[in-house]
């Protein structure tokens, strides 16, 4: 079973009223070797109360990610087709992919967004600075994306690391 299938099944179990620990035990009993995958999927799903509480901030992050992709293209105009444009394509498509996962409120992406945008912010500051208005707007949007994605990751998904699920001192997954 893939991560999407597992997440859908776990979401249904959560909606039926089972606790996260009960769901984890249920699926790990059937496949003990995949305990890390199940723990990650469970920890990546926000509770209904947290989803509702942070929905507007998450929507703002979604808008900022799409704006970031658009500003990346605008800042690169005019595009010189004689030079490789693969990096421009990557720097435009990755935020769109992030926006898809933010739309679905998937917890595993928020820390990755923070890192990606932090690297991009440092790269832009070191290489280009803010020579134009679109570059300055892009830097401002990047700054807000970093702050908001870090905030959501800390408040809504405290049991996730950059890759994987946190564990307590006894090696049990925090769900």
Which characteristics define this entry?
single chain, 175 residues, mainly alpha, 2 domains, 69% helix
What does this structure look like?
- The protein has helices at residues 3-15, 20-30, 35-43, 48-53, 55-76, 86-103, 110-127, 133-156.
- The protein has two domains: 1-44 and 158-175, no CATH class; 53-156, no CATH class.
- Helix content is 69%, strand content 0%.
- The protein contains eight helices and no strands.
- Helix 5 (55-76) runs antiparallel to helix 6 (86-103).
- It is mainly alpha-helical and 175 residues long.
Estimate nothing, just give the exact number of structural domains.
2
- Could you list the spans in which at least 5 consecutive residues all have pLDDT below 50? none
Shape: elongated
Distance between the termini: 20 Å
Q: Which whole number gives the mean pLDDT? A: 86
Q: Give me the strand/helix succession.
A: HHHHHHHH
Largest sheet: none
Give the amount of beta strand, in percent.
under 5%
Structural class by secondary-structure content: mainly alpha
Total number of strands: 0
Supply Rg. 19 Å
Helix count, DSSP H or I runs of 4 or more residues? 8
* Amount of helix: 55-70%
What is the strand and helix layout of this fold?
Layout: H1 3-15, H2 20-30, H3 35-43, H4 48-53, H5 55-76, H6 86-103, H7 110-127, H8 133-156
Helix pairs in contact: 1-3, 2-3, 5-6, 5-8, 7-8
